[in-house]
User: What shape does this take?
Amino acid sequence: MDSHYEKNNVAQTEPINRFNLYQYAECSKPDVDRAVFFPNKNTARTDYERRVATAKEICARCIGREVCLEIGIAEKHDGIWGGMTEKERRLYNRSRNSK
Ligand code: SF4
Assistant: This one.
């Protein structure tokens, strides 16, 4: 199978959870710059936005995105988790809890 559901040519053989997330995560691939997932808000706005956009592009093709998002929400981490910034995760979580 040739898809993003493989990491380093290892096919997914189990459900994704918090313990095996990085075995399949797009951001754990060796050619990915992990720094883009933790953009510094004190840098130039354009640099911050470029890093966020790059991280989101990577997250968009990640099979572990939903698990990652829930971890990011539950543990209130900094940076991009599940394709969302901290603020976006807060708003998303608030929105779904109000339904
Ligand atoms: S959703 Fe993004 S930050 Fe989370 S594991 Fe996947 S690539 Fe990494």
Observations:
- The chain has four helices and two strands.
- Residues 7 and 29 are 7 Å apart (CA to CA).
- Residues 6-97 form one domain.
